[in-house]
Specification:
The chain is of the alpha/beta class. It folds into three domains: about 5-50, 434 Repressor (Amino-terminal Domain) (Orthogonal Bundle), CATH 1.10.260.40; about 60-160 and about 290-320, Rossmann fold, CATH 3.40.50; about 160-290 and about 325-330, Rossmann fold. The chain has 13 helices and twelve strands. It has helices spanning about 5-10, 15-25, 30-45, 50-55, 75-90, 100-115, 130-140, 160-175, 190-205, 220-230, 245-260, 275-280, 295-310, and strands at about 60-65, 90-95, 120, 145, 155-160, 180-185, 210-215, 240-245, 270-275, 285-290, 320, 325. It has a six-stranded parallel sheet, with helices on both faces. Strands 7-6-8-9-10-12 form a six-stranded mixed sheet, sandwiched between helices. Strand 8 (about 240-245), helix 11 and strand 9 (about 270-275) form a beta-alpha-beta unit. Helix 1 packs across helix 3 (about 30-45), helix 5 packs parallel to helix 13 (about 295-310) and helix 10 crosses helix 11. It starts with a helix and ends in a 17-residue tail after the last strand.
Length: about 350
């Protein structure tokens, strides 16, 4: 069992209050007494219960980040950036995974409020105007939206211009000569997916036909399923290029096409989104719209910590980063006449 502060006091021959002073206000204790207490702590292996002390005070030295999919390397990098910023301030980051489930997200927020976290970074599953987030803010817990824009006066946000990112992908594929392009992504209730679709739609309007292939999630397996749908189309209807709402989908499309003997980029070009580390390391290096992932997390955590330190005197800011297109082998060639295939 864990050693108690009472045992430390008994071994050192002092009162509980003296041990507390050594831990919290050492300047109030003589050097000799402080040494006896510290020796007792070392002998017993005592570890202070800092969380209990902070809860009694009504707050903690923790902030939380709630992400859509902890398995997605994009969010791994965002969390890393947030942790780096928080570590500089002596604050710990608690990571929660909503799994793109609004009810699970709400349960996380309930538990985080019970634990008195100082603030919450979140990429919401659905609407940024969620009543649960409003309740959290109204009761004094600061919230910063991550990878999601916001015009609301009571919260900061850090995002990437996803409409522009979709536009970059569409302009690139249209310039290569593709006239039938598939957009793979979903659900559209995720704002980033809807914005990327809007961007590519605008970019190819009047230049190419855009075919939407909906997915239920943003995972490799969903990408493979979408690629199967595309590959099964008659040759005359099959898109010659695919723009995916994230890199996991794009990697799934690449895997399925390769397994079916469809050449990338000769038969079909692929562009992803996020530029995670695996994109460049794929069997066919993947073109992708790059987001400043760690910078997103660091900036969001910085805004949250500023608001916490301001004690209510904080001007909310909305930071928007610009993405860039990184062209690799998966879409590096202008479109050629499609080789003849069965179907």
């Amino acid at each position: 069992m864990a050693t108690s502060i009472k045992e430390v006091a008994q071994l050192a021959g002092v009162s509980l209050g003296t041990v507390s002073n050594v831990l919290n206000q050492p300047e109030r204790v003589t050097e000799a007494t402080r040494k006896r207490v510290l020796d007792a702590i070392a002998t017993l292996g005592y570890v202070r219960n800092d969380s209990a002390r902070q809860l009694r005070a009504g707050s903690s030295r923790q902030i939380a980040i709630v992400v859509l999919d902890v398995a997605n390397p994009f969010f791994t990098d965002v969390v890393r950036g947030a942790e780096n910023a928080a570590e500089d301030q002596g604050v710990m980051v608690v990571v929660c995974n909503s799994s793109e489930d609004a009810q699970r997200e709400r349960r996380h927020l309930d538990l985080l409020e019970e634990q008195r976290v100082r603030g919450v970074l979140i990429t919401p599953v659905d609407d940024t105007r969620s009543s649960r987030l409003e309740e959290l803010i109204e009761r004094g817990t600061p919230v910063v939206l991550v990878d999601r824009g916001s015009g609301w006066h009571n919260r900061c946000s850090v995002a990437v211009d996803d409409v522009h990112g979709g536009r970059l992908a569409g302009e690139h594929l249209a310039a290569l000569g593709h006239r039938r392009i598939a957009f793979v992504g979903g659900p559209m209730s995720i704002q980033q997916v809807a914005d990327r679709h809007r961007g590519v739609s605008g970019a190819v309007a009047g230049k190419a036909e855009l075919v939407a292939v909906a997915t239920s999630s943003l995972t490799v397996s969903s990408g493979r399923a979408a690629a199967g749908q595309i590959a099964d189309l008659p040759a005359s209807e099959r898109p010659t290029a695919v723009f995916c709402a994230n890199d996991l989908l794009a990697l799934g499309v690449l895997q399925e096409m390769t397994q079916r003997g469809v050449r990338v980029p000769q038969d079909i070009a692929i562009v992803g989104y996020d530029d995670i580390e695996f994109a460049a390391a794929a069997a066919v290096p993947l073109s992708s719209v790059r987001q400043p992932r760690e910078q997103l997390g660091r900036t969001a955590a910085g805004l949250l910590l500023e608001e916490i330190a301001s004690h209510g005197d904080h001007e909310h800011r909305h930071v928007m980063f610009q993405p860039e297109l990184v062209v690799r082998a998966s879409s590096s060639r202008p479109m050629r006449h499609r080789r003849r295939t069965a179907g």
